[in-house]
Write a structure and sequence with these properties.
This protein has 415 residues and is α+β, with helices and mostly antiparallel strands. Helices cover 31% and strands 21% of the residues. Helix 1 packs antiparallel against helix 3, helix 3 packs across helix 10 and helix 8 packs across helix 10. It is globular and about 85 Å long.
């Protein structure tokens, strides 16, 4: 496999990424302020100083923890201004504290025992592991997530910018860098200042395995249902008690049981129950609603509203209330008339010897919301697998190729 980056740059990329993983930067849902956690400031301040130290211009860190920087053009022609964006928070789905990344040089292709308790990354569970035989894998130690989502993307962007600064013979236009908090809780783009950023279009380096190139994603909403029961002594409950916990259970059964994350793929949407709690008096359900089709997405929300109405009519009182909040939308409609942005990426992939794997994201990125705010922003692979849990890993060679893609993209746009 031919690489633009030599051994020196390989080591820079590796050590940079591992350094980032050591920052505890988990975000938290349901918090009003941005960033949602104070701990995100630690990595943000580090990145702020690092971007200045490698020689970028106009480096800023604002009061909401958003980082921006500029690599000035080294050509006289006016070319489109491109941006590269990643997020530094990690998912609250699993512990992001005390991350101890493990590096496996020349991976054997066999199962990897990650710690002394026998926690194992198995080929039988993750058969795609075998395609990385002979490469360098970076894994967790089985006690935390790794944070390749999306610290791999940040490491790739910073390394690409440092490489371009060290190689002025590579011609490029003006390049913008943006790092965001709170992406994992759906708010990364909420306070992103597109006007200040100043790019004509951008790419999030926030995809999965090598080759991914995405400009479609889910439409997304969250729904919270609250059930009010009537608690009386169970010995005197006949025709009186209304058990809120049972109401919640009954409601969940009214939704299509074959439309969940575990039963759908590709362009199929779902209702996903993410949290349930309650007792006889009060109970609640929290769902996320997802679909690529805007029409079907709206019908999913309407279905939940209909079921709430049905439920209250059935029990002849308001036993159920619902709050639905849109989170992000499919970026496709804002990119399909600007496919030259995708063509730039395809050409950069080709120069890096990578076959693009164009597919729809079964999720969302900062780029989805940014596209709706006026900054077209498709998504490129960062290289990781099994995000948001202890089985997360990233091949270093995939990160090197992602770094190359950034460099070639900057070169391509300047032609």
């Amino acid at each position: 496999m031919h690489f633009l980056l030599n051994t020196e740059w390989r080591e820079k990329l590796l050590h940079r990424f591992i350094k980032y993983t050591q920052f505890y930067s988990t975000s938290e849902a349901g918090i009003e302020q941005i960033p949602s956690t104070e701990r995100q400031w630690n990595i943000a301040k580090y990145l702020f100083e690092e971007l200045k130290s490698i020689g970028l211009s106009d480096v800023s860190l604002n009061e909401n923890c958003y980082i921006m920087a500029t690599l000035p053009s080294n050509i006289s022609d006016k070319k489109p201004i491109v941006g590269f964006i990643s997020h530094f928070d990690t998912s609250p789905d699993f512990s992001g504290e005390n991350v101890k990344a493990k590096v496996w040089e020349n991976y054997s292709g066999e199962d990897l025992v990650l710690n002394e308790n026998g926690f194992t990354l198995k080929n039988s569970d993750f058969p795609e592991l075998k395609q990385y035989k002979g490469q360098t894998l970076i894994t967790t130690d089985g006690t935390s997530l790794l944070g390749a989502d999306d610290k791999a993307g940040i490491a790739e962007i910073v390394t690409a910018m440092e490489f371009l600064l060290a190689h002025p013979d590579i011609k490029h236009g003006e390049i913008k860098i943006g790092f965001t908090p709170d992406e994992e809780v759906g708010r990364g783009a909420e306070l992103f200042d597109i006007k200040k950023f100043g790019a004509d279009f951008a790419y999030t380096m926030d995809g999965g395995e090598i080759g991914e190139l995405e400009f479609e994603n889910f439409n997304a909403a969250e729904a919270t249902l609250v059930f009010e029961g009537l608690s009386v002594h169970p010995g005197m409950a006949k025709n009186k008690m209304i058990n809120a916990a049972l109401l919640a259970s009954e409601f969940s059964q009214l939704l299509p049981q074959n439309e969940t994350p575990a039963t759908t793929d590709n362009y199929e949407g779902f209702f996903h129950l993410t949290h349930i709690e309650g007792d006889v008096s009060n109970a609640s359900l929290h769902y996320i609603i997802r679909d690529h089709s805007e029409e079907i997405f709206n019908k999913r929300k309407e279905k939940m509203l209909f079921l709430v109405k049905y439920f209250n009519e059935k029990y002849k009182k308001e036993v159920c209330k619902i709050l639905i909040k849109d989170q992000y939308f499919n970026m496709k409609k804002h990119i399909e008339d600007k496919m030259y942005i995708i063509d730039f990426a395809k050409n950069a992939f080709s120069k890096s010897g990578i076959e693009p794997n164009i597919k729809a994201i079964r999720g969302g990125t900062d780029g989805a919301m940014l596209s709706y705010k006026g900054l077209p922003c498709p998504n490129i692979f960062a290289g990781g697998h099994n995000f948001h849990g202890p089985y997360e890993y990233v091949p270093l060679e995939s990160m090197m190729k992602a770094t190359e893609v950034i460099i070639h993209l900057c070169e391509e746009i300047a032609l």
